[in-house]
Write a structure and sequence with these properties.
Elements: E1 2-6, H1 10-22, E2 26-30, H2 33-42, E3 47-51, H3 59-68, E4 75-79, H4 84-92, E5 97-100, H5 105-116, E6 125-127, E7 130-133, E8 138-141, E9 144-146, H6 150-161, E10 167-168, H7 169-176, H8 186-199, E11 206-209, E12 213-216
Parallel strand pairs: 1-2, 1-3, 3-4, 4-5
Antiparallel strand pairs: 6-7, 7-8, 8-9, 10-12, 11-12
Bound molecules: calcium ion (CA).
Length: about 220
């Protein structure tokens, strides 16, 4: 499940990234309000954790703007502001909850779970003859199980969850392999080739986007 954290205190941002990734979330971090808003509008997140005081745009502005654009993902404010007036402002801007800094990480996790209730990872991803069960890590083509390595499975699920979206090699290497350098992206092509062989006829959904990366066609 993808989480966007917009927080300009690097220490807190890193702490959140590490803690949330250990809990199985995929975390994107922004240290600036403008960048955070851009990312929140460009990509889909299950939940957003927003600091209030940020460079350029405040968390409050980010929250207002995404709600105006019809983005309904839950928003939790992480803020030292805790006057009733601030809390009301946050809720009016469309926030779902807030946590006062300094915060307890377990409390944050529990509050996130409350907001994410009913939005667990899909039980089943289906596209034509292809069926993927994230829970049991199984994949089927025309009802026949295909045996994927862990990375092949993660790559396929990642692309399927973003079907219709072009995924760049650098984004895939960062999100699926957790490598933050561009020079290793050749490994993706090797995995995609292996995946295509195993997918057989369902490989037709997996398109190469020249010079950029890959996408699963809807
Ligand atoms: Ca701040």
């Amino acid at each position: 499940m993808r989480v966007l954290v917009v927080e300009d205190e690097i220490g807190i941002a890193n702490f959140l990234q590490q803690g949330l990734e250990e809990e199985g979330y995929r975390v994107s971090i922004c240290n600036n309000g403008r960048e955070g808003l851009k990312l929140a509008l460009a990509e889909e997140f299950a939940i957003l954790l927003l600091d209030w005081n940020l460079p350029e745009f405040s968390g409050l502005q980010i929250c207002k703007s995404i709600r105006e654009k019809g983005i309904n993902s839950p928003v939790i404010f992480l803020t030292a502001r805790d006057t009733t007036e601030d809390i009301i402002k946050g809720l009016q801007a469309g926030a779902n909850d807030y946590i006062k800094k300094p915060f307890n990480f377990n409390e944050l996790l529990e509050r996130m779970k409350v907001q994410l209730r009913g939005k667990e990872a899909p039980q089943r991803l289906v596209l034509g003859s292809l069926e993927v069960l994230p829970g049991s890590r199984q994949a089927f083509v025309k009802g026949e199980e295909i045996h994927l390595t862990q990375k092949e499975f993660e790559l396929l699920s990642y692309l399927l969850e973003r079907k219709g979206e072009v995924c760049s090699r650098s984004k895939i290497i960062e999100d699926v392999w957790d490598i933050h350098f561009d020079y290793e992206t050749g490994v993706i092509d090797v995995y995609v080739n292996a995946l295509r062989k195993k997918l057989g006829e369902a490989a037709a959904f997996l398109k190469t986007v020249r010079g950029i990366g890959y996408m699963i066609q809807k």
